[in-house]
Amino acid sequence: GRIVVLASGTGTLLQALLDATAEPAYPAGVVAVGTDRAGVGALDRARAAGVDTFSVAVRAYADRAAWDVALTEAVAAHRPDLVVSAGFMKILGPAFLSGITCPVINTHPALLPSFPGAHGVRDALAYGVKISGATVHLVDSGVDTGPILAQEAVPVLPSDTETELHERIKITERRLLVGTVAALVRGGRDRTRGDLP
Ligand code: GRF
């Protein structure tokens, strides 16, 4: 299976996928990594793995709709069987969701539907939860709202800072993402969004 990964940051989730897909037994390969900005660690990690990269910066386009179309074209050019948003910090718009017909999944560092959005870890910590976790879900037109594919709980310690909790969650998130991607790709390439188990 041909996987395109979208990222915005350091790319440790991407790295987990690059490491897993490097194993001959893993049923998929990362064919390209896309970001919404240049100069992020995810791009360096992709290059180090010999994987194609592209960057589609919002400010390079007249408006969000034009950016959405440009991102769609850049992703579609790699003929993905699966798109993985791994720390991609932009909402995928209508052009993307209609233009990309293969499954699109996202990973979120909280137990959705609790604490969606760009600050899930901070919000959970501020709320005082004792258990948080990681979620992998299908992307739909909302923010962190698509059908849930996998979740795993992660304990919150009283002394946790946002960074400490996020790093603990990311350990689980990386394992959850790699396992979910393998299951999806083994599940058959001709699936359209939404009819997955
Ligand atoms: C992950 O926890 C992801 O869920 C969140 O941001 C983090 C990205 O981490 N949106 P990295 O860039 O993969 O290290």
Automatic annotation (TrEMBL):
Protein's pathway? Purine metabolism; IMP biosynthesis via de novo pathway; N(2)-formyl-N(1)-(5-phospho-D-ribosyl)glycinamide from N(1)-(5-phospho-D-ribosyl)glycinamide (10-formyl THF route): step 1/1
Q: What is its EC number?
A: 2.1.2.2
User: Which is one GO molecular function term here?
Assistant: phosphoribosylglycinamide formyltransferase activity
Q: Which reaction does it catalyse?
A: N(1)-(5-phospho-beta-D-ribosyl)glycinamide + (6R)-10-formyltetrahydrofolate = N(2)-formyl-N(1)-(5-phospho-beta-D-ribosyl)glycinamide + (6S)-5,6,7,8-tetrahydrofolate + H(+)
Give Gene Ontology CC terms.
Answer: cytosol
| Domain annotation Formyl transferase N-terminal: ranges | 2-179
Give the positions of the site Raises pKa of active site His: 144
- Which residues hold (6R)-10-formyltetrahydrofolate? 64, 89-92, 106
* UniProt name for this protein: Phosphoribosylglycinamide formyltransferase
Native species of this protein? Answer: Pseudonocardia sulfidoxydans NBRC 16205
Q: Which gene encodes it?
A: purN
